[in-house]
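W.,

You were right to be curious about this one. When I first looked at the sequence I had no strong expectations either way, so I just let the prediction run and decided to look at it fresh. Below is the sequence, 217 residues in total, followed by the output.
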Amino acid sequence: MIVINDSSTDRILELLQNVKDKRLKIFSYENGGLPVARNRGISHAAGEFIAFLDADDMWTADKLELQLAALRQHPEVGIVYSWTSYFIDGQEESIFPYNPIFFESNVYDKLLVNNFVANGSNILVCRKAIESVGEFEPTLKSCEDWDFYLRLAAKWHFVLVPKYQILYRQSSSAMKSKVEFMEKEALRVVERAYQAAPPEYQFLKKQSLAWVYEYCT
């Protein structure tokens, strides 16, 4: 477990001092933002598979176990994802599942239209897949996970664990509450995606833009 302390202002370092486990690695940096923090985690990772868990999200106890099994059952696949539920900050008993989807194999066109993976705490990804597409785009301040997933989907197949395993926290202070900011960064992701997309996918751009504005609404 690699903890990237991105100039946190909570008690994370104090709390982690009580965890006596040599598998826990802690690295502290000046604030670089979410994509930079994830990239720093990648740089320290030594494993064949990498997963990301943002500070305000949670996994079910079987998340890694079932995702790893799915990747091993499908060695041609580079990424596995699960279904997401969300809850309101401070109300963990109020769980609201997102609509289940069943996209697998080549999901590139589906992911162009909307980020069905839903958040950055979802995937388990092979290191070789990351190495083939590069890390998170450090200039993006939001929607960097969608950009990353799109680059992966252009080269790799996805597989699904059809189970709600990601608990995504929503709060008034969260990034997704800043609608104008989210809109700006999401539109940047769309432009980046269609600059790289083959000609046969260009007709989907209006659908992608429609999803962005629906999401912001």
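Here's what jumped out at me. DSSP finds eight helices and eight strands in the chain. And, maybe more interesting for your project: The two ends are 37 Å apart (CA to CA).

Coffee later to discuss?

I.
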